[in-house]
Amino acid sequence: MFSFEPTEEQKMLVETIHRYSAGDLRSSAHAAEEEGQFTTEVINKGWELGYLQASIPEDLGGFGERSLLTGVLVAEELAWGDLAGALNVQAPGLFVIPIYLGGTESQKVEHIPQVIEEDWKTYTSALIEPSFDFDPLDLRTSAVETDGYYVLNGDKTYVPFADRAEGMVVYAKLNDQTQGFILPKGTQGLHVGERVKLMGINGFPLYSVNLNQVRVPAEMRIGGWSGHGFSAILDSSRVAMAAMAVGLSRAAFEYSRDYAREREVFGVKVAQKQAIAFMLAEMATEIEAIRLLVWEAAWMIDNSKENASKQAYLALSGATDLAMMVTDRAVQILGGYGYIREYPVELWMRNGRGIAMLSGLVLV
Amino acid sequence: MIDFETPKPIVMMNNALETVAVNMMRPVSRQFDENEHEIPWDYINFMHMAMVQTGAGSLAPKKKPEQDGEEVEKRPPIGYQRLACMLEMLSWGDVGLYLCTPGGGLGAAAVEAAGTQEQKEKFLARFSGKNPTFGAMAMTEPQAGSDTSAIRATAVLDPVTNEWVINGEKIFVTAGHKSLIDSDGFVVVWASIDPSAGRAGMRGFVVEAGTPGVSVTKLEQKMGIRASDTVSIVLQDARVPFENMLGSTEIVKKETARGFKKAMATFDATRPLVAATAVGVARAALEFLKEKLEQNGIKIRYGLPHQKLTSIERDYIDMEVMLRSAWLLVLKAVWMADNRIPNSKEASMSKVRAGDIVTRITQQAVEMMGPLGYSREFLLEKWFRDAKIADIYEGTGQINRLIVARQILGYTGKELR
């Protein structure tokens, strides 16, 4: 049966997240962007809503069952509040989810409960690399097997909380495959570089990281000697970021719509001018359409449908264009005010351009 | 629960219709495109037989019989979802031929939306009769397209004979010839019973084949959908019985805009269905493109970052995103219709998007195929021509943007012109 109605539980979860987003995230977003971070208090409040715990089973410290469909509903609502804020709250998932998806049983027991049973802590992953054609399936960071160890070399960038993370999953190319390795805090050879400054999401601390002859024991390779599949992680990262793009776009659309209804021009409201009204109509239509694409991809992954990975890729592709189009138009609709940092739309546009390169910074 | 599983009855129907499209439509597409005023009777007779047997057909799904005032319905309703899938598949075959499918079309849809129970019984029975029969809607006039308040056709009551006397000229009537001349069908003509009342005075009148004073004056020559007949109709003192005015027969007051609103309600239901036909045409073009690329050794490498994709791959992926998301929007709009959730916004959104993407996809596909795309050896150039009307009829893309805008801004027609 076709249906577009979330379950009651999903609706309640989204409502709870929405209150957090509308209250805590929205009120702290501007300061976080200017100052470079959110308070742990605000982040923890979002963490306590339990979205990640709800997707991990009880025997690992959670209380639920993994569902990407629920995950994308949550991701959209958090990003609607603030993209950087959302990425902060969800950062521990970068460490937990790959281990949950690909780890051995003992790896799951050893690493997951300590993260999700406590307050929000800095756990992270390092995937993105500083090249213009970065490709998660063709990494430059290498892993070579030597005497029962894996030796990692390479440069990573956009690594959340690298300077203080308790644990980090690092991805490297091993035998032409992308594989994840679990690195504890203080690992030899892992050098945390400068904080990277980006066009947007300044409230999300990111760092460059250099790996120089980092020796990783076999039991710290996700999946141990046999390793793990990367496609489930990649699929998750794509639908997660795509959902966030939808949330971000929705925020920009709603704000510019409300502005246009108030602002007066030539004796009428700006929204009464067809040029603006049509822009808004197209923004709204595109958001609806791409959201459905994201939902379908998430549903296909949850139900192990053929071509699910392709749909996730298409969803992110569509969401990337969506975010750029909508956030750009939101600035345009606000005119001069749209360009001023005191108003949120220019931040949303700076964040909107990021969707294309931030995939890998969140998992659901 | 959010669910994208295609219901089994629809899967089965799609398989059957795909066979129809491949065997009965595609082989004759070129013939009926080049001979615009020939009528595809083989297809028509086949579809009539098939539809009378299965009960499918009009643009409004049959409602389940009521029991004790409550609909006896164990499974969720999927009538409009079925129709959307059916129209998508048939249009994937040939949208011009699809428009020749017998059945009530927009005419029956208007009767369904605005007619009384007696009128529905009286006028709709003919579509499941022995012969393929057609229905049509006549609204547009030479000076009135998007601006329906500019309609000048009038209907004056003759109290002596209790007949409506209709005068006016209608243009761009899809299947008008088939409805009035090639079958015992009807055209629903929108005319005013009180010109001073503007839209509130508009009513739909069932004008049956054979009505004196009604003449089909022109068969248009079109860019695309050439298998479908598009005609002008002149009504000169055409007389129809009083009961042929759609809606309650006692209300002849100008204050009630109900008649016109009901016509507009028709569009909430048919708009996503027209969007579905556009998606079908777009899908045909995209699949053709993929096939030809593969024949030339080009495969789309999904999963790569954009920087590593060729231009062709990049364009194709964008087109695939457009197509799939447009279809999902149609699906949501018809799902809402089936579940009685008000869907004006989604209906118009689906039309905006589908009209847009079928234009862009077919235009891009022709360009990408170079000399082959432009050649009449392949159907792609025909689909480009067939596509354009989707953004024009049943509410232009601009009018539908206006409707969406009013919905999202909370504006009336006066507040946002």
Structure description:
The complex is a heterodimer of chains A (364) and B (417). Chain A has 364 residues and is of the alpha+beta class. Chain A contains 11 helices and 10 strands. Chain A folds into 3 domains: 8-116, Acyl-CoA dehydrogenase/oxidase, N-terminal domain (Butyryl-Coa Dehydrogenase, subunit A, domain 1), CATH 1.10.540.10; 123-226, Butyryl-CoA Dehydrogenase, subunit A, domain 2; 231-358, Butyryl-CoA Dehydrogenase, subunit A, domain 3, CATH 1.20.140.10. In chain A, a hairpin with a 2-residue loop joins strand 5 (167-174) and strand 6 (177-184). Chain B is 48% helix and 14% strand. Chain B has a 4-stranded antiparallel sheet. In chain B, strands 4-7-8 form a 3-stranded mixed sheet. In chain B, helix 3 (79-98) crosses helix 7, helix 3 (79-98) crosses helix 8 and helix 4 runs antiparallel to helix 7 (258-295). Chain B is globular. The chains are: A alpha+beta (364), B alpha+beta (417). Strand 1 of chain A pairs antiparallel with strand 1 (3-4) of chain B, so a sheet runs across the interface.
Describe this structure in a few short sentences:
The complex is a heterodimer of chains A (about 375) and B (about 425). Chain A has about 375 residues and is of the alpha+beta class.
Write the layout of secondary structure elements.
The complex is a heterodimer of chains A (364) and B (417).
Chain A: E1 2-3, H1 8-35, H2 40-47, H3 68-81, H4 83-90, H5 93-102, H6 105-111, H7 113-116, E2 123-126, E3 142-146, E4 149-160, E5 167-174, E6 177-184, E7 190-195, E8 206-217, H8 231-262, E9 264-265, E10 268-269, H9 274-302, H10 308-334, H11 345-358
Parallel strand pairs in A: 2-5
Antiparallel strand pairs in A: 3-4, 4-8, 5-6, 7-8, 9-10
Chain B: E1 3-4, H1 8-34, H2 41-54, E2 66-67, E3 70-71, H3 79-98, H4 105-114, H5 117-124, E4 135-138, E5 154-158, E6 163-174, H6 176-180, E7 186-192, E8 202-208, E9 214-219, E10 230-241, H7 258-295, H8 311-338, H9 344-368, H10 370-373, H11 380-387, H12 397-409
Parallel strand pairs in B: 4-7
Antiparallel strand pairs in B: 2-3, 5-6, 6-10, 7-8, 9-10
